[in-house]
Amino acid sequence: MKLYKTDNYNKDFVNKNMMGPNSMLILEELTKDIPLKKGMKVLDLGCGTGLTSIFLAKEFGVEVYAVDLWISATENYRRFKYMNLDNLIIPINTDANNLPFAEDYFDVIISVDSYHYFGNNDTYFPYVKKFLKKDGILPLSFVGMKFEVHNNIPKEMEHLWEKEALEMWHSIEWWKPKFENYLYNIDIGEIECFERAWQDWLNCGNSYVLEDKEMIETDNGRFMNIIYIKGNLK
Description:
Layout: H1 11-17, H2 23-30, E1 41-45, H3 51-60, E2 63-68, H4 73-82, E3 89-93, E4 106-112, H5 115-118, H6 124-128, E5 132-145, H7 163-166, H8 172-175, E6 183-190, H9 194-202, H10 209-219, E7 224-233
Parallel strand pairs: 1-2, 1-4, 2-3, 4-5
Antiparallel strand pairs: 5-7, 6-7
């Protein structure tokens, strides 16, 4: 069995703060070939309960700006303090469309399992890229589709895919044009730890898990994936 750094974290803490497929595990795979270094300023966009921010600060020693709209800065600060990382992580409660940062401020803008909520359009990346330095690094990962299904939804999945969610889930081919004019060294593909990340979520004890369990079991690897996008800003 493959060993992950994620497995070194307290399982009860991770399970308690999971909000979907294991974001910490996905982040570990997403960052495996990214040169994150101490002193870098990193925007963790849509950080949720801050598991990804904790991993970034602890494993790489970077300065993390942990932004989320739905989780309060105070809640996240308590988690960061509990992990003795409050000196490296700044919790911020704000909308992804109204970021309070200077232009050219971040060395890295990263987002795990949230970018598809606000970035599934032609206008968001042209907005957010202004906060990233030239040659800055962009690693993203989020739930997607192996191919576009919106005009031909499989009958067995109709009652399992909420219309609002399905509007945000797209294929690699759909996402690629949103970035290829702005990035170089662009790399887009499927996250390999899809099955493990979902199983961690399904086994974490969260009350929302039951809704997703039938969906993942019925899908059985046929339609859904987790997409990653990496590149440097031109």
